[in-house]
Amino acid sequence: MFAYLLRRILSAIPVMGIVAVFVFLLLRLTPGDPAAIIAGDHATPEQLERIRTTLGLNQPIWLQFVTWVGRLLQGDLGTSLISQIPVTELIGRRLEPTLSLALMTITVSVLIAVPLGVAAAWRHRTWVDRFVMAFSVFGFSVPVFVVGYILIQVFAIQLKWVPVQGYRSITEGFGPFFDRAILPTFTLASIYMALIARMTRASMLEVLGEDYVRTARAKGLNERTVLFGHALRNAAVPVITVIGTGFALLISGVVVTESVFNIPGLGRLSVDAVLARDYPVIQGMILLTSALYIAINLMIDIAYTLLDPRIRY
Amino acid sequence: MTTELSSVRHRFEHVTRLTAAAFLLSSIAFPAAAQTVRAVMHSDLRVTDPVITTAHITRNHAYMIYDTLLGMNEKFEPQPQMASWKASDDGLTYTFTLRDGLKFHDGAPVTGEDVVASLKRWAVRDSTGQKLMDNAADLKATDPRTVVLTLKKPYAYTIETLAKPSAVPAFIMPKRVAETPADKALTDYTGSGPFKLSVPDFQPGVRAVYLKNTDYVPRSEPSSWTAGGKVVKVDRVEWITMPDAQTAMNALMSGEIDYIEQPPIDLIPILAANDEIVIQNISPLGYQTIGRMNFLHPPFDNVKIRQAALLAMNQKDVLDALIGNPEYYKTCPAIFGCGTPLQSDAGAKSLVSGGNPEAAKKLLQEAGYDGKPIVIMQPTDVNTLKAQPIVAAQLLRKAGFNVDLQAMDWQTLVTRRASQKPPAEGGWNMFFTNWIVPEIFNPLVNPMLNGRGTKGAWFGWPDDPKMEQMRDAYASAKSTDEQKKIADEIQAYAMETVNYIPLGQYVTPIARRKELAGVLNAPVPFFWNVEKKKGK
Question: How many contacts, defined by CB atoms under 8 Å, are there between A and B?
Fold first, then answer.
């Protein structure tokens, strides 16, 4: 197991290297000039040229790449071309809102969707099943911004239970944090609940027809133990995959939800950086996302072995 | 009974004493709530250096933390701000005297050396500043409170240049900060303005927080544009970035924010219907929207074809698509803007009277247009610039032009418009943008009129020595009447050569909570004089 982990971690290095080269070249081939964004509407060609030179954008691409990689190896992701703030600081400040939102969304989704999926499979082709499926279709089909605006209209504007927008760090108190996080959490969870509930239902349906489930029932175990102790554990592998990749997706970009609820997360940072062609920030974000996907996939693989002892590496 | 009464009285006195003590304690423990104004501006603040960029949000930020040597009032008249001035009779020497009580945020006094360093850095970047320095023989501080500017020859626009409110006003910063090269962004936010930037709270793309500068000594005159007293009445101003207009509107209606600088015009009726919200048009002059052609490449290197394009245009069609509600726009033939001292309609009548496609078609044939497609750049991600290219393309097609309308994001557009290559090799033929009227209100500040060709002119790069001569004549004019006469001639000449196409004026009112009082009318959103009637 340890050798497997080490092998996976080492194999991440060339993957990250390829991502770095690809992203660097792709960005330089995309039309756009950060100097023009910085200079504004009045800039003359000479002024633009001077700003480009100061930012190092006039250097050959290979030299820019070597400089960037050299700094990267020392843990320095560079400095934003637009705001002149280190990329690590920019990402660091945006990490907490995104992580909090992702963790809350996944927790709420799992707590609601897994029992719903189990119930739908258990009561296959009854009104329970149909209700859960209808709920899933709704969750998939309605765009998050619509769900967000409806929740804001009802709970923030009509009932005035929570604020319309914003984010407070949990360090400022659980109340202010929770007030502002609850609506975006349920907005995002509407999709993930649908996804996880469907996946749980499908996996459970497969497993419930297996011999060992019939045996468990035949030996007189109660239905709850059969469902959650025997069936769900065996049906969990695909569900865990969905949860893991869902978590990675939540961290790498929930721009619309972040915009609707005005949450200063990583999604907005990425979009702003792309629109401004802020190369160091985009590169930093893509490297972070790649590392995250690699780490989450690794964690999913480890989780498989815990849930299903037949899986060995 | 007496005992009971006595007991009640005793209890009453006890309660009264306790209440009084509690009130006293509360007043000690909880001083009056600090007043915070929360505003959503038109854009997020990311570049903080007002010299390196001309972005309006950066200029607005600079007005918070810096002060200017001179100000300009609503009649476009220069006024003293940090300094008063005196010109010598021969017009060659200007002496500026700094007023009492000027201090930077770090406590250091503002000196003549700071002023000289700031003006030198500003003049590297600002085109009118460059022109002023071209005329300057010397700029020096003769003592800590006096700065002397000596000119080679009289330059009538000296004071107006130093007082102009936009796009790059002459902000004053400490010498150590102003010695940063003009093409390198500042990272030290020390100014002497009425607010200080709270650096720990500043997060580009999220929020900028300003605290009242308690050391600031405002002028005694009433505030008018950038002139007069900048009296700060709140403790803290927060600029919160909200990328979604609907969210900002909801936040304003629920009282989470106090101010939206530019609510979308189509959301204004909803806001106006709310009793708690006031719609205020703080800048009646508003914006001028314009079309600019590329003088370097066919077909717009041909003046007759530019004239045909001008005849094809119709301001009302453009403004209807852009703004829609006539309450917020007006057609305007003046290249220096309507409502300004230099307003003129010379040569632009067809623009405001529905266009003349037939005459445009005829002129196009006479000019020998070969049907080569003209590349119009259309930004899809800027609400105030989406409509103009689409309407213009249709009007030009109607007049016989072959149009290639290319959609792109604004960042691609600003990069591409800097390219002087032919359209087929990544260049362009036409694009659109907007200016606030104080940025175009005379021949010297109006960037489009610069006729210095590929090296020094604004995008489109007209090489026009005659225009440069006329601008110089304007700068040297001895009286307001003479300036007006030359400005009229420039308007007529600019229309004849189709330097650019003015497409009308529009305003973008602010939306604010009713309890937010004292919001000043000005072309820049200012936060001095603003107060909240209820502490929040």
Answer: 137
